[in-house]
Design goal:
Elements lengths: L5 H11 L3 H16 L3 H14 L4 H13 L3 H14 L4 H13 L3 H14 L4 H13 L3 H14 L4 H13 L3 H14 L4 H14 L2 H14 L4 H11 L9 H11 L3 H7 L4 H13 L6 E6 L7 H4 L3 E8 L2 H10 L4 E4 L2 H6 L5 E6 L10 H10 E13 L9 E3 L5 E3 L1 H10 L3 E8 L3 E2 L2 E2 L2 E7 L12
Parallel strand pairs: 1-2, 1-4, 2-3, 4-5, 5-7
Antiparallel strand pairs: 5-11, 6-7, 8-11, 9-10
Helix pairs in contact: 2-3, 3-4, 4-5, 5-6, 6-7, 6-8, 7-8, 8-9, 8-10, 9-10, 10-11, 11-12, 12-13, 13-14
């Protein structure tokens, strides 16, 4: 019997492919690269494994997770399902399939995937928590609470489990239970920003100002640079009230809200864009598409389609990139800009025929700088239309007040005076209901003012 030389052994190895040991080594390298965020390297290694063994379950599963990390959720679901066809007992794959289905907004299927996980691995804490979250979204609250409580029983030290329980209890209108759960979240994880925010919203809903003040002081002690905590402490305590909300506070808040913003406003019966468009129609008549229009604080672009008929050019400006991205997707704008509103107006003198602002000025207290900038940005005979929340004249000495909601309210007298001082003539100042808040109508003011071609000799009627 003849023996193979080294060259012959290499040739045989190249025909038979890598050994199981080599495939296992590639798989571990891929997993390590993925854990360290080197996704391109990890993907190449997973593909290398699957080229040699198309039925390698872990490679299919983790390649699916990688696709989900890149936002490719359909592809992720397909890969993880292929892994589960080969090994239906793979509990972690069922949990990750639930995560992907949640991202694809298939909550019923996600819930079933999480159930399969806990059936296969009753001690899987993350799956119990995930099941609680998705059941809360589905309104199956008793089941959701039970799932969250089971996650806590299995691992009492995980703060997120208490937060999930609080969210389920809140949906059940168990306010005291919610407060206890959120407070426990903060006790176990003092920097849990979402728990502070959720608890502050509940205190606002219950009008528990002193509790809110205590909460915000605690929040600010944990994170002295947090602009949200500082702003809301001012709102609840009435101390050190800023002239307007800080840019970082507004930007972060609306970036976080962008994905669900339209759905949230729809739930609140939001009507400010329609009310403003009706006022513009009364003021300007039939649209002719000849005006340079600015949507000041454009958000997700709800005003855009309503203002488009008036516009030769329609520009939207907003401080939040997340909101501007949504406005871009909605379409209709000639230009979209991420910028602070007052600074933007200052940089574009005599550029606008019409400026419309729906519920943006509620994040400004002192409106004098903004009105002055708006007047400079308007051409002669140009128009400014906006909505704010109203505070009765008798309830404020300054003309505006920062509320526990974190928004400012303004008095009618203050608006008239500040507009006139900026060189703008108010022609409409109507009480309106732009939306609901805590199930009750919000009292707002809709204002239309114009920039005269010549300096006015007296205040216009209002």
């Amino acid at each position: 019997m003849s023996l193979m030389n080294r060259k012959q052994r290499r040739a045989l190895a190249s025909r038979t492919g890598p050994s199981p040991k080599q495939l296992a080594a590639w798989l571990q390298q891929a997993i390590q690269a993925q854990q360290r965020g080197r996704l391109t390297e990890a993907e190449a290694l997973y593909q290398q494994v699957l080229q040699r063994d198309p039925c390698q379950v872990e490679a299919l599963h983790f390649l699916g997770v990688l696709a989900a990390q890149r936002g490719q959720h359909e592809q992720a679901a397909d890969l993880i399902r292929r892994a589960l066809e080969l090994n239906p007992q793979y509990a972690d794959a069922w949990n990750n399939l639930g995560n992907v289905l949640t991202a694809l907004e298939h909550p019923e299927e996600a819930a079933e995937a999480y159930r399969r996980t806990v059936e296969l691995a009753p001690g899987h804490v993350g799956a119990h928590g995930n099941l609680g979250v998705i059941l809360t979204q589905l309104g199956r609250l008793e089941e959701a609470i039970a799932a969250c409580q089971q996650a806590i029983t299995l691992a009492p030290g995980i703060a997120e489990s208490y937060f999930n329980l609080g969210t389920a209890l809140l949906a059940q209108d168990d306010h005291e239970g919610t407060i206890v759960a959120y407070q426990e979240t903060i006790r176990r994880q003092p920097d849990h920003t979402r728990a502070y925010k959720a608890l502050s919203l509940l205190f606002y809903k219950l009008n528990r100002r002193e509790d809110a003040t205590t909460l915000f002081r605690c929040w600010l002690e944990q994170n002295p640079d947090d602009t949200a905590a500082r702003h809301m402490l001012a709102a609840s305590s009435g101390c050190d009230v800023p002239g307007r909300a800080a840019d970082d506070y507004v930007q972060t808040m609306f970036d976080e809200m962008a994905d669900d913003f339209d759905r949230h406003l729809n739930h609140l019966g939001y009507r400010a864009p329609e009310l403003l468009t009706e006022a513009v129609a009364i003021t300007l008549g039939v649209p002719a598409g000849t005006l340079d229009v600015l949507d000041a604080g454009c958000g997700t672009g709800l005003c855009g389609p309503l203002l488009r008929p008036y516009a030769r050019q329609l520009i939207g400006v907003d401080l939040s990139l997340g909101m501007v991205d949504k406005a871009q997707a909605r379409g209709g704008y000639d230009e979209l800009v991420v910028a602070e509103l007052t600074a933007f107006l200052v940089e574009r003198p005599a550029s606008c025929d019409l400026i419309v602002s729906a519920d943006t000025l509620v994040y400004f207290g002192d409106l004098a700088p903004l009105f002055t900038a708006a007047a400079a940005a308007l051409r002669p005979n140009g128009w400014l239309a906006f909505t704010v929340e109203e505070i009765p004249d008798a309830e404020t000495s300054t003309g505006f007040s920062l509320e526990l909601s974190g928004r400012y309210r303004h008095s009618a007298a203050y608006l008239r005076q500040t507009l006139v001082e900026a060189g703008l003539t108010p022609t409409m100042l109507n009480q309106v209901t732009p939306r609901l808040e805590r199930g009750q109508p919000v009292t707002g003011l809709l204002v239309v003012a114009y920039k005269p071609a010549l300096e006015p000799t007296q205040e216009s009627p209002h």
